[in-house]
Specification:
With 137 residues, the chain is α/β, with parallel strands linked by helices. It contains 3 helices and 7 strands; from the N terminus they run βααββββαββ. The protein has a 5-stranded mixed beta sheet. A hairpin with a 2-residue loop joins strand 6 and strand 7. The radius of gyration is 14 Å and the shape is globular.
């Protein structure tokens, strides 16, 4: 891990913890495990002020490209559950992929259990998309 721990902006950290606690029970075992793993990783996360956030860390609204060892590649924007739209490649932070990448940085490699099985993903690219600050609640 590039920075040693997940890095989250203060307001996003609070929002993410609230979303995880509200997400409730999961019938899907891999999703339940993903939520629990992220909750555990949040305990040691680095929580920073907005102006101290590295540009290469995945946050709400970041555009992300991930690649797997078997050649699979995916591009998406990580968003809150209410902004999620599969056809626009806007992926909720509460999906398995969203839970896996939040707070990681470009160049990090993540081993994560997805509904289709375990995958090792490399974060190939992270771009920050600036939005109105009142959009994330």
């Amino acid at each position: 891990m590039k920075y040693g721990s997940l890095i989250l902006e203060k307001k996003e950290f609070v929002t993410l913890k609230r979303l995880l606690s509200l997400s409730g029970n999961h019938k899907d075992a891999s999703r339940k495990n993903s939520v629990l793993r992220l909750q555990n990783e949040l305990e040691s996360a680095i929580v920073s002020d907005e102006e101290e956030m590295p540009e290469d860390v995945i946050r709400f609204n970041s555009e992300v490209t991930v690649i797997s060892g078997d050649g699979w590649e995916n591009n998406f924007q990580l968003v809150s559950p209410t902004e999620s739209n599969y056809s626009d490649k806007k992926l909720s932070v509460l999906t398995a992929m969203g839970l896996a990448v939040m707070g990681y940085a470009q160049g990090d490699v993540i081993d994560w259990e997805f509904p289709g099985g375990a995958k090792s993903l490399e974060i190939k690219e992270v771009k920050q998309v600036k939005v109105e600050s009142n959009q994330i609640k």
